[in-house]
Amino acid sequence: MITVEGLKKNYKINVKKGIFKREQQINEAVKGIDMQIKPGEIVGLLGLNGAGKTTTIKMLSTLIEPDGGKGDIDGMDLIKNAFEIKKIINMIAGGERMIYWRLTAKENLEYFGKLYNLPKKLLKNRIDELLSFVGLTEKMNVPVEQYSKGMKQRLQIARGLINDPKYIFMDEPTLGLDAPIAREVRKYTKKLARENGKGILLTSHYMNEIEELCDYVYIIDKGRKVMEGSPRDVISIAAKNTNKYIIRLESFSDKLKNNLDDFIKSVSSEYKIDNFDNAYDIEISSNKDIQSELITLLSANAKVLSFKVQEPNLEDAIIKLLEVS
Amino acid sequence: MAGKVFNSILAEAVKQYKSNYHSRMVYYSMLFWPILQLFASYYSYKPFENSKASNVISALVGKDKVFAFVIFGYMGYMFFGSFIQSAWRFSYERVSGTLELIYITPASRIGIMLGNALSSLLVSAWMFTVFCAGALIFFTDLKLKIYMLPVAILCLTIPAICWGVFLNTLFMFTRDSGLLFEVFQAPMEIFGGAKIPYQAFPFWGKLIGGIFPLTWSLIIIRKIFMNGATILNIKSELLVLILFCILLSILSKYLLVKAEKYARKTGNIAMF
Known about the structure:
The complex is a heterodimer. Chain A is of the alpha/beta class. Chain A has helices at about 55-60, 80-85, 105-115, 120-135, 150-160, 180-195, 205-215, 230-240, 255-265, 290-300, 315-325; strands spanning about 1-15, 20-35, 40-45, 70-75, 75, 90-95, 165-170, 200-205, 215-220, 225-230, 245-250, 270-275, 280-285, 305-310. By secondary structure, chain B is mostly helical. In chain B, helix 7 (about 110-120) packs across helix 9 (about 150-175) and helix 9 (about 150-175) runs antiparallel to helix 12 (about 215-225).
């Protein structure tokens, strides 16, 4: 199990104050994070850009040394036993960097496998298994520079599994991928945890991905933990009063607009409207239950084609949480 | 432990080789460029022939040996140069993000550096062969004792690898590796004795030249090829060279540990 308590990291940053003058400032990237990741569990790490997600992942993957707090992976200390930890962890990042483009998929995997000192036969079998797992067997001898973005990402996954790690840190693994490929990556991720018992720490900007995959989430902001729990817990606590109404109207007159503006203002809510396919789609977010008033107001002024009340999701919860923090 | 180091060396050397010698054009160019370099060194010597500078050299190495002196100097310099290039090339790992992935593995760090340096061996060995063949054709009065050829090869290869690994470790500290490249390259070319004999420099020039293993490699190579030297004739220079190699190896190992510690502290590993 991965356990960290009060993990901290400060960076020194140079601020330009002139052509030759620099002023050194301290940026507290992570200000004391507690976290647990069990084998077979997918844990989400969420936050806005600059929240400290990548720094946390790099500390856990031994690439960066924490400045404070303590952490261990299966009883091994993050600082003292970094080389032992390296054998049981790996990292998968999104994007097209971090692989050798002039080498083939097989050559890339051979290289990284040898860095883990894997015996020849075991490495060969593992490469075959992984290439089949990510669906690259047929293209294994093609240089990576000729791969599509999705294929490169699948190779990244295979590379991240070459040492059969017990824990995997996935930093935006679906970044910039098309929907079907992102779905495939999600499928692999799920399989790794559920069938292969890997403990996974996942960061992503796609909330549906987190909701779909994660058993537990940590929400951080400006280097601090804001909340933790299962995605459902987070939604129910943070966004329990967030009501979203999706309404389709046949018309949207000036009179209706004025009435709606006044009503929305009176209940401190907000709305947006789109004109699409000869109809008007209105999305209203409110902290109050305004369903009956809305129906009365809208049906008196226009023909209501549909009216849906949408359950709050993780995205709403995080926005609310970060607004408060 | 030895297996881990060996696997790291092998993995890195094979990877660099496959990354850099990926097309036929590279091999075609290898057929031509050492020959072109050989001609270039010959014609850069030509205007120099019978000049005052040439007289200085001929007073030190013998009148009929000035051209051979220049050729072997050039070859040694090019040999070291290719190892320096390989060290410089490694800095691209930082840009492509793969340096992070290397550091995340438990691979032998010194093994990686050695493997990277060794990937240049093919080019260097080929260039050495072309220059040796050229020297045998051009100079009928070479006094090389054939059993000393392996010694000459080792005296070039091992210090060049140690130098390449050392530079590589320095490049691990900083992303501004181009500056280090310039800082070492030019003084080595001038004071390393590639074109002007080391003995011809004033004391301060000898001090600068003396810190480059190339200087000592060149003295040994020239003595072996041009004077028919045996081990006994080169023992003091050989001792200096061995000490250099040991010192560079210890320093590289120490700096590698320091560089990784520094990178973990500052997070500069991902900066490029």
